[in-house]
Amino acid sequence: MNIKRIEASETWQIRHEVMWPDQPFDFVQLETDNSGFHFGVFEDHKLVSIISCFIEGREMQFRKLATLTEYQGKGIASHLLEYILQFAEERDLEKVWCNARTNKRSFYEKFGMKDTYKTFTKAGQEFTVMEINFSK
């Protein structure tokens, strides 16, 4: 398992295939993509999991954590999430947060993230804001 920085455009296919297959392809392209940090996990030189991170002030939001279906359940997304939490700590950020699908809440809780109970619906999916604060 190899994690490295990738271009925003390299995330789009996995975002679309895994997260929003019923939406148009441009639905997964974010206006802020060019200002973000994008990371991918490679297995035998194949991109199998992606995440995008956006830093504003002392906070980082991560978006679009997705792993190809055939690679799910192998700890790849967990490894990637640990990687970006370390990335945030190395930059002395105070908080990392995401809009998590509510059915994935327990996954994020394993990493110390807390549910803020700020919920919303987007394209028929229920989301809740999850966050972790780093003590200084």
Per DSSP E runs of 2 or more residues, the count of β-strands stands at: 7
User: How would the global form be characterised?
Assistant: globular
β content, as a range?
Answer: 35-45%
Portion of residues in helices? 10-25%
Continuous helix count: 3
Q: What's the average pLDDT?
A: 93
The strands making up the biggest β-sheet line up spatially as: 1-2-3-4-5-7-6
Distance between the termini: 31 Å
Low-confidence stretches: none
Structural class: alpha+beta
The helix/strand order is EHEEEHEHEE
Major beta sheet, specifics?
A: 7 strands, mixed
- Gyration radius from CA atoms, angstroms: 14 Å
Give an overview of the whole structure.
This protein is α+β, with helices and mostly antiparallel strands and 136 residues long. The chain is globular and about 35 Å long. The chain contains three helices and seven strands. Strands 1-2-3-4-5-7-6 form a seven-stranded mixed beta sheet, with helices on both faces. It has helices at 12-19, 76-90, 105-109; strands at 2-6, 37-43, 46-56, 59-67, 95-101, 114-122, 125-133.
